[in-house]
């Protein structure tokens, strides 16, 4: 079964064919660091993390580059407004980025370069383009000559005549052609600048990704990606300048994720309709946002809403409950023994069975991989995961966790499989801790505190334990109605109780 990826360059799902163990090079356009990250940025980051994880799962050695644009008009504007240097603005928001995005549990790229670290590489590339007749200088500015590249428009599917007639471009009398774009900008007062063959100045936006990709990954890379809004002109311009410089294809696959939408409009800072990651984290765990961002196919638009985040939270709760229930149903020493002896005759458990695992395991893996091989279809993959959750829950209801050791081995195998499938998608499992509470003496009860806790929405662990102890006391004196009120109150807060010989177990669902 071949992995197929929708390639923006061809407009088709093209087979991704490399021998297992091959090095896969991937460049993902990063953020411009002049403000905090919002959910729209997070979607691209999560999507390409998912792609990287799945390629690694298939046995590829993925080398990923994700850049920071740290010299830009917006950064300069903000620095001037605050009376600080551009480097101070960029460093501040790189720190904020790492703090906020770090909570999403993403893989770290192999390289995370800042544009200003590669000015010399950009100057070298611009010089090569000028020598080959693809770039020209006008009074300290250097422009790329779009007419010198006959394939211009092949990524976005546009032709030069249509672009000339309808493109919204800045009017610049220095340009020979209104479609030509800046490779180097002459220094203006108050702007950061560097020495170059054309005088003091700074690079244009498009050249930075081409230069850093060439330097860190080579002349032709396997995957280049980013949001759909980058297809034109940014990625179109990257192709033009890169291929004119090297004479070779720039990237084999171009992958673009859909926009995050709010009320039928793209989420963006320019429209002011955005939510920062910090704002979302105030109400939802980062792992809930992560799950929400992969819940729809990466190329589809994604409507951002509290309803969607709540659905993601409920789905994760089901997953946590399932995995936590296995952990609580089977002794830890049995789980460790199964893992230690997996693939061997289970002599230590007095049974004579060998792998391969049960057929049902293959069924869910096949469904998962079939979905992911079809252009990273995460909704299909998640459906397979939750079918697995349903099967495990059914086995728990039948008592497999407390049944024969053959059943326990099967359940542990499925538990580990489910964890692996979640890891491939970057889904973070939150272990559910089961606490056993027993009644220690009669004791006096602060009824006022009990009532306050029953009315409180979010309870700390010790507060839950206190309520469970009170329920045990009420049951002992046969106040069953009041005891049931406590159970029902805890259940409404997502806390389950199970009475056992030692007392009562409680667990957060």
Provide a descriptive summary of the structure in words:
- The chain has 17 helices and 16 strands.
- The chain has 509 residues and is an alpha/beta fold.
- The strands form 5 sheets. Strands 4-3-9-10 form a 4-stranded parallel sheet, sandwiched between helices. It has a 4-stranded antiparallel sheet with strand order 5-6-7-8. A 3-stranded mixed sheet has the order 12-11-13, with helices on one face.
- Strand 1 (4-7) and strand 2 (12-15) form a beta hairpin.
- Helix 12 runs antiparallel to helix 13 (378-397).
- The longest helix has 24 residues, at 306-329.
- Mean pLDDT is 89; it is low at 345-360.
Low-confidence stretches: 345-360
The percent range for helix content is 40-55%
* Separation of the first and last Cα atoms: 38 Å
Number of strands: 16
Shape: elongated
Please identify the top-level CATH class of the largest domain: Alpha Beta
Please count the helical segments.
Answer: 17
**Percent of residues in beta strands?**
15-25%
Give the C-alpha Rg.
29 Å
Structural class label = alpha/beta
| CATH architecture label name of the largest domain | 3-Layer(aba) Sandwich
What is the number of independent domains?
A: 3
As laid out across the biggest beta sheet, the strand order is: 4-3-9-10
- Give the CATH topology of the largest domain: Rossmann fold
The major pleated sheet works out as:
4 strands, parallel
